[in-house]
Amino acid sequence: MQKVIFIIILFLRFIPSPFGRGEEGAAFAQPAEYKITRPEYIEKYKDIAIREMQEHGIPASVTLAQGLLESDAGNSALAVYANNHFGIKCHKDWTGKTYTKDDDRRDECFRKYNHAEESFDDHSEFLRERDRYSFLFELRKTDYKGWAEGLKEAGYATDPGYAKRLIKIIDDYKLFQYDRIQETAVRKYEKKRTEPKITPPTVAEFSASRKVFLNNDIKYVVVKEGDTYYKIAHDFEMRLWQLHNYNETGRQTCLQAGDMVYLQPKRRHSRTENTHVVRFGETMYEISQLYGIKTRHLYKLNNMQEGQEPKAGQKIWLKTHK
Description:
The chain has about 325 residues and is an alpha+beta fold. It has helices spanning about 1-15, 25-30, 40-55, 60-70, 75-80, 115-130, 145-155, 160-170, 175-190, 230-235, 240-245, 285-290, 295-300; strands at about 100, 110, 205, 210-215, 220, 260, 275, 315. It contains 13 helices and 8 strands.
């Protein structure tokens, strides 16, 4: 009997459905050479681009246009195998994973990320942290043409027509609408907060039950009893992966009352403190959370190997290299 049932199932498996492909069937029928279209790419990453604009000040239209152009709408080998959507090369300050491919020269080193979202975040930091791009942040977020011309002027790409290509993509797909949507949202949000409140200068009320503090110019909350990453993400309408990414934690990490949870990416160095003296049992990760510095950059500032822990009494540099 079991043999008969097996033969029937096998026979039915190869009979084409008269109803065409459903959503599940489409996943199996999709050809291996299927490429993401530009509209699909925009729909997939627009929210991330808008969020990056809110956190770092780079127009969402420019971020999306660069991603579309640099990654061939997410279809390039660099995007597929290294999650690198902006063609950012390793440079001497990169300590993460790498991917090698031919570009201007043979076997050039490019940055490799675990997720595409990390590429968007690193792209924002890349522009924000380098002096040659600083003049761009004086432009309005809606001045996408100025940003495109400025990126070319600052040497982001060697293509002489780079700015024109970005502008054409933005105009063709009306990406400028995302810059304006965010601007409108910010105005509405600020309008809601016009009610007089008595709060310390570094504290902002974002939720009726939570206060948001600033450390190293990064927003964070203090964990309360019973808090989880999921609950905090829900309270601030964020995605769970964001909190884990910003705080460099895994999904199994448990929180304790009094912990700091950052709502934005940590920075490459401290903007105020120069050094920290290590207490007994203190780890590099704990120091990175204490000062709002990404762990890998803290290791680099101190010429230490990743995974190496400091000794009690050791001086850790936070702003400049050891």
